[in-house]
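Sample entry follows:

:::
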Amino acid sequence: MRSAVVLIALLSLAATGCSRSQKPSNILYSAGDKAIVGPLVYSVTDTEVTQQLGDEPNPRNAQERFYLIKLSVTNSSSDDQSIPTMTLVDDAGHNYTELPDGAGVANWLGVVRKVRAAQTEQGVVVFDAPTKHYRLRINDALDEKEIAVDVPLNFVHERMKALDTNPAGSQPPGVVVPEKK
C-alpha cells in the first residue's frame, strides 16, 4: 500500500514537471485608448492609408499602400526613454516593419527617437503594407506577451469628421451621436 502511494506521488510530480507553463496573455488596446508599455503610454490618434507620401509622387512607390499612424507617446518616468520600433501585424500573423525613411510625411517620428522624462512626443509612423485589418505591436518582438493597438481600416475619428460635414439630422451609417444635456 505504501509503495502504491509513493508511486502515485511520483507520477503526479512527473506529470506536473512535464506540463507546459502557459504563455502570458496578449494585451490588445483599441485605437484611442491608452496602451501602457513599461513607463511609456501610447495612444493611436488617427490613421491614413495612401499610395504616396507628401504632396509630390514618391519616387519610391508603395509596394502596397502606405499606412500612416499618428500617435502620441507619453513618458511617465523620471528618466528619458527611447521609443522602440513598432510593427504592423495582420490577422494571419504577417509582420510589416516601420519604414526607415518618412521623407514627405509631416510630423514623422523618425527612426531614432526619445521622449524626455514626464513629456509627450506626437508624430507619425509609416508602413508599406497591403490594405487589411492590423494591430500595431508596440513592444519588442522578444517580449513574452504581445502588447498591441487595434488599427481598424476605418478609424472612428473619420466617421466623426463626416458627421461635422453633414447637415443636422443626417448621420453616416453606424454613427450614434450622444444626446446633448
Q: What stands out?
A: Confidence is low (pLDDT under 50) at residues 13-23, 156-164, 166-181.
